[in-house]
Amino acid sequence: RNTDPAVARSLALIAVVVTGTGAAAGPQPLRHFPDAGGCNLAQFKSLSPQELQAFKKAKDTFEESLSLKAWTCRLRLFPRTWDLQQLQVWERPVALEAELALTLKVLGSMADASQGDILDQPLHTLRHIHSELQACVSARGTQAPNAGSRPRGRLHHWLHRLHEAPKKEAPGCLETSVMFNLFRLLTRDLKCVASGDLCV
Fold first, then answer.
1. Where is the signal peptide (predicted)?
2. How far apart are CA 77 and CA 69, in angstroms?
């Protein structure tokens, strides 16, 4: 199956940001997303029980298969210090978009390989969230608070980490990191971005 176009565009953007090539710049500060034109992220402050159940089923199924493998993963892609509240408000959707892009890429590959039916609903939900997030970023323009600047500090470190992960981590370790990060992505990172500057 071909990579989802939205995922490909996002991964390309991450590569540009990380390597410093091209003229890409971060988005303008995003405040209360429900009030921003073209944004509809407030709906994602909490997902429906049915959607969460689909993610839980996928994660449980993965854990059952994991016990049959002998993966020895030394590095944690999403450490305990991964907390979007540490970023500025305008940086959070950039980080979440990168997190979602990698998650979609990994889960898409897993669906192609063996878990298509179980991952269908989670992938549908994540693609919808990713699409809405991109609409919000686009709706507020393409210039960061400091025009022409590239992401620095913690945001740059996180983007670089996500960009390099597929090259540095074994496929099994990458799948494990993404699957065990799913609920933090959905209940913490997504909720934080959907809350705008109310996430403190």
1. 1-25
2. 19
Total-model pTM: 0.73
Q: Are 77 and 168 in contact (CB under 8 A)?
A: no
Tens of pLDDT, residues 54-110: 999 999 988 888 765 556 676 678 877 788 998 988 888 888 999 999 999 999 998
The string of DSSP codes covering 109-164 is HHIIIIIHHHHHHHHHHHHHHHHHHHHHHHHT-S--SSTTPPP-HHHHHHHHHHHH
Q: H helices then E strands: how many in the chain?
A: 7, 0
Segments making up each domain of the chain, as ranges: 99-143+152-199
CB neighbour list of residue 166: distance below 8 Å, 6 or more residues apart: 102, 105, 174
